[in-house]
């Protein structure tokens, strides 16, 4: 028996994600980081587009436990927005790893247009082991807010 390969979400640069979110009225940005990251690091700001970022944790902080209800929670949030299984969904996390897993989970659940925002909100580590300067949403100058 051949094992079935897991679906893989296409990686898109942050600028391309912003452009599609700007152009495609029904497109949705889903931030899968933790509540702590949303509160202390900041959030993508879609207010200039007349949208809000959907927030659903992929893992919880501080123990990094997987959110076993992720697909159900996000499906409910998307239904409340009027999103269909063909709506463009863009997933973002800190650097692109968790968001890739989240996008794959939604592909497997039947949502056909899931994309991973490569480099995420903060991007990769720089030489000093800091994030936010070398790549990602913040370093590209895209709108963001902090509480």
Mean pLDDT, to the nearest integer, reads 92
Morphology call: globular
Which structural class should the secondary elements be placed in?
A: alpha/beta
Predict the CATH topology: Oxidized Rhodanese, domain 1
Q: How many domains comprise the coordinates?
A: 1
Distance between the termini: 51 Å
Structure annotation, total helices: 4
Q: What percent of residues adopt helix (DSSP H or I)?
A: 25-40%
From the 3D coordinates, which CATH architecture would you assign? 3-Layer(aba) Sandwich
CATH superfamily: Rhodanese-like domain
Q: Radius of gyration in whole Å, from Cα? A: 15 Å
CATH class: Alpha Beta
Q: What's the main sheet like?
A: 5 strands, parallel
How much β-strand is present in the residues? 5-15%
Keywords:
147 residues, alpha/beta, Oxidized Rhodanese, domain 1, two-stranded antiparallel ribbon, 4 helices, 27% helix, 14% strand
Structure description:
The structure is a single chain. The chain is α/β, with parallel strands linked by helices and 147 residues long. The protein has a single domain, classed as Rhodanese-like domain (Oxidized Rhodanese, domain 1), CATH 3.40.250.10. It is 27% helix and 14% strand. The protein is built from four helices and seven strands; from the N terminus they run E-H-E-H-E-E-H-E-H-E-E. The strands form two sheets. Strands 1-6-5-2-4 form a five-stranded parallel beta sheet. Strands 3-7 form a two-stranded antiparallel sheet.
